[in-house]
Design brief:
Blueprint: H1 3-6, E1 39-40, E2 49-50, E3 55-57, E4 63-66, E5 71-74, H2 76-85, E6 96-100, E7 113-118, H3 133-146, H4 148-153, E8 159-171, E9 176-185, E10 192-200, E11 205-213, H5 217-228, E12 231-233, H6 254-260, E13 275-278, E14 281-284, H7 291-304
Antiparallel strand pairs: 1-2, 3-4, 4-12, 5-6, 6-7, 7-11, 8-9, 9-10, 10-11, 13-14
Helix pairs in contact: 6-7
Length: 305
């Protein structure tokens, strides 16, 4: 895929909520962390990217990535270069990106895992066993379809949630949640795979979001399964270290993480956004067309309180 075709990509903003975007900044490499000095010169495909490997402390210092030899890391500034080259406006707010060593992100089969962090509070996982994921999917489909008229009115393609590409799974021992959705963007020749991982911490949620063509599901499943294990909160920020007397409790549970893609506040969707890449197009929405679905989970939480 060349730069000309990437230029057709764009960011679609939903006016239903405020999009919080901050300037990307590069993490200074710690002396104890090995650096990957190689710069990937992509030529006409995209800009050269500077990678790091090994042990990575994220810029916000709350979590680390133990990448080993299978993955490489782009700091926020390099991730910004990648997203802009994919056809997005500058101004992303990430903790960086992860690219498998055997993937060239500017190739037709290229993909990456975008890392973000939401510090809306500690997510209570006590409702993990209560969800019927088939019912949740039905509600999510209805919520997505209900917003397509507004999406088209704003000049963006309608998007259809086809189904789970991988059913949601929650590991209560490691506090990690993952699932995959199959999406159909109108006008696109192939479907899009949206593979999500959430790692729960003391004060917030670390998100790893990989997006590619649905035909890459097997490849990404193989790459994402071990990648789930490389992210770990640092001491002082781990789930078990939550203190109910002093720490903030998030106003949503696991259901809202899945239904909305990322954390949403009760009645205030300022920090709700989804990162969806279709043919190297990134959709970052201030709100993700699933207010009715998310409201259900909030109501359940309120009634249980």
């Amino acid at each position: 895929m060349n730069v000309a075709s990437l230029a057709s990509g764009r960011i679609a903003l939903s006016l239903a909520g405020a999009l919080l975007l901050g300037p990307a900044w590069a993490q200074e490499p710690d002396a104890a962390e090995p650096e990957a000095a190689s710069e990937e010169a992509a030529g006409d495909r995209g800009p050269a990217l500077s990678y790091r490997t090994g042990e990575i402390v994220l810029p916000n210092k709350v979590a680390s990535l133990h990448l080993g030899a299978r993955y490489r890391y782009l700091d926020p500034a390099e991730t910004e270069k990648l997203l802009v080259a994919w056809g997005n406006q500058p101004g992303s707010d990430t903790e960086g990106a992860i690219v498998p060593t055997d993937v060239e992100p500017f190739s037709d089969a290229g993909w990456a895992v975008i890392v973000t962090y939401d510090n809306d509070g500690h997510v209570d996982d006590s409702d993990a066993r209560d969800f019927n994921y088939a019912d949740m999917l039905k509600d999510m489909k209805e919520g997505t379809e209900s917003e397509n008229a507004d999406r088209k009115k704003e000049g963006y393609e309608a998007v259809h949630l086809v189904g789970w590409a991988e059913d949601p799974h929650y590991d209560g021992a490691t506090k990690k949640l993952y699932w995959a959705k199959e999406l159909d963007f109108e006008g696109s020749k192939s479907h899009t795979l949206n593979y999500d991982v959430r790692v729960l911490g003391r004060e917030g949620v670390l998100s790893m979001n990989a997006v590619a063509g649905i035909g890459q599901l097997d490849q990404i499943r193989r790459s994402m399964r071990p990648l789930i294990d490389v992210a770990e909160f640092n001491e002082g920020y781990r789930y078990a270290e939550y203190n109910a007397k002093t720490d903030k409790l998030a106003e949503y549970g696991l259901g809202a993480l899945i239904a909305g893609g990322v954390a949403a506040k009760l009645g205030l969707f300022g920090k709700l956004f989804a990162l969806i890449i279709a043919a190297k197009k990134v959709l970052i929405a201030g709100a993700v067309a699933l207010f009715g679905v998310i409201a259900k989970f909030f109501k359940k939480k309120d009634s249980a309180a």
